[in-house]
TrEMBL record:
Keywords (A to Z) from UniProt: Membrane, Transmembrane, Transmembrane helix
Keyword field contains Transmembrane: yes
Source species taxonomy: Bacteria, Bacillati, Actinomycetota, Actinomycetes, Bifidobacteriales
Key word Membrane present: yes
Organism encoding this protein: Bifidobacterium leontopitheci
Segments passing through the bilayer: 51-68, 88-110, 117-141, 161-186, 198-222
Name the record gives this protein: Teichoic acid transporter
Length: 225
């Protein structure tokens, strides 16, 4: 029980003795008085105009680059072939794999670092690049028919580009299944719970993606399709 005095002191019972102790002043409030509700403050911080612009940019990144790449493949085939011949099939698969992995890495970091716009921009730019490559290489599940019709004997480069993208996509799918499985099966008090940490998640992601790339580059797929 304490009796507060005017000079910001209080009388308290300490170890069986009555003593007068100082009481700290309450700090000044860091948030100024306002008539706005918490919902109003959060709404102002959300910047809806920025999100609208970003969603429009994402839609643009999905549609326009793919259309432009497909137009180049169909209407300027020889020009595309001439520029693709500067690379090897493994080099093309590696580059498209990097673009796809970078795109989904940006997406993952945008979720983790939700307050930063950097990774959202990385995801948008990477998505546009991936869609452009997909358009040039006529990306779809049975792409080898389309690439042979358009590119003929030079289709191996477009096929390699598609395999790089698909390898990264399969890696992401395998990672998602394993990650969800770890979250469901591992208890919080288990020592294995360290595998669910964000840094462990990214290590697992890149290990799986590297394995998928090695299968494509050295598993004979580049010479099969």
């Amino acid at each position: 029980m304490a009796d507060e005095t005017s000079n910001n002191e209080a009388v308290e019972l300490v170890d069986g003795h009555v003593e007068t102790v100082d009481v700290s002043h309450h700090p000044d409030p860091s948030i100024p008085d306002t008539d706005l509700s918490l919902a109003d403050i959060e709404r102002r911080r959300s910047h809806p105009a920025q999100w609208i612009v970003y969603l429009v940019a994402l839609l643009f990144a999905v549609v326009v680059p793919y259309w432009f790449g497909r137009t180049l493949a169909v209407d300027h085939t020889q020009w595309v072939v001439a520029h693709m011949d500067m690379f090897t099939p493994r080099g093309v698969a590696f580059m498209t794999w990097i673009v796809t992995v970078a795109t989904f890495t940006g997406l993952g970091l945008a979720v983790v670092e939700s307050r930063s716009w950097l990774w959202r921009i990385v995801f948008c730019v990477g998505l546009a690049a991936e869609q452009f490559i997909g358009g040039v290489s006529l990306l779809k599940w049975d792409f080898w028919y389309s690439t042979y019709v358009v590119y003929g004997d030079a289709a191996r480069m477009a096929n390699a580009a598609n395999l790089g993208i698909i390898a990264a996509g399969f890696g992401i799918a395998v990672y998602a299944v394993l990650w969800v499985g770890l979250l469901v099966t591992i208890r919080k008090e288990s020592p294995l719970n360290v595998l669910t940490r964000s840094w462990a998640s990214f290590i697992l992601f890149f290990v799986i993606e590297t394995a998928a790339l090695l299968i494509v580059m050295f598993g004979g797929l580049l010479t099969t399709v």
